[in-house]
Amino acid sequence: MDTIKLNNGVEMPQLGYGVFQVSPVEAERCVADALSVGYRMIDTAQAYQNEEGVGTAIRKSGIKRENVFLVDKVWMGNYEDDAAARSIDESLRKLGTDYIDLMLLHQPFGDRYNAYRALEDALKAGKVRTIGVSNFYPDHLIDLSHFVDVVPAVNQVETHVFFQQTEARKYMDELGVAHMSWGPLAEGKNGFFSNETLAAIGAAHGKTGPQVALRYLLQRGIIVIPKSTHKERMAQNLQLFDFTLTDKEMNEILKLDTGQPIIMPSHHDPEITKMFMGFAPR
Description:
Layout: E1 3-5, E2 11-13, E3 17-18, H1 24-37, E4 41-43, H2 51-61, E5 69-74, H3 83-95, E6 100-105, H4 112-124, E7 128-134, H5 138-145, E8 154-158, H6 166-175, E9 178-182, H7 196-205, H8 209-219, E10 223-224, H9 231-238, H10 247-254, H11 270-277
Parallel strand pairs: 3-4, 4-5, 5-6, 6-7, 7-8, 8-9, 9-10
Antiparallel strand pairs: 1-2
Helix pairs in contact: 1-2, 1-9, 2-3, 3-4, 5-6, 7-8
C-alpha cells in the first residue's frame, strides 16, 4: 500500500475505506470485510453515527491498532464552547480506542476556529496523531491556516474525475496540506460507471472504469476512500497498484473535469450555508 507523508511526518495510507452512508447496523460487517480484504485505513465521522460499529470491527479483526489508520470528523453541531473537546472524547469512547490517527473538522461553517483549537489541544494531549479539515474551499483553508498554530495536515473535499479540484489543489500544495478525496467514484453520478473514456482506458489495462478513475487520483497524489457494501467490490477497489496510466491516458481523463461539484452544491451558495447553519446550535 502506498502512503502519503503528512506535514507533521505521519505516514498515511493513500487508499482507505469510507463508511459514509453505511448504516450503524451494517458498519461492523462492512468494516470487518474491508479489513479482511486488505484495507488498513478507515474513514468515519460523528455525523455518520456508525463509530461504534467501526471500532468494534477493528477490535474484533485481530489487527494491531497501530496497523489501522483511523480517520474521524467533528460535526459542526459540536463546534461551540467546550462541545468540540467533549465530542472528541465521546468519539474515542465509541471507537474504543485511546487515539485517533486523523481528526478533521467536517464543515467550514459555525465556530470553526474554536473547534480547530480543540483539535490542537487534542493533538497536544496525544488523543489524535494529526489534524485537518474537510470541505474547506481555498479561501476557508487559507483563512484558517493563518489563525491557528498547527496548519491542517489534510483537506478532504469532493474529488473525482468530473470535479478534480485542480485550482483548490494549488493552494493545498502551497500550504503543505494533503489532498484527500471523498466521493472518488462520483457516487455514480454523471454516467460514471458507463463512461466511455474510463472504460476504454480500462480495457487497455484489463481493468474497470472505476479502477481507472481511482488510479488516476492516486497518480495525482490524492488520498482516496472508495465505499462499497459488497466485499468483492471492496477487493476490486484495492487492485490499483499493478498498473500505471500513461501521460496520454492521464490527459484524456483530465478532459473529463467539469470544474464544478456534482455531489454537493457549492459551499459558497448562500442557500447551502443556510441549510448547514440549521445544524449548528443557536
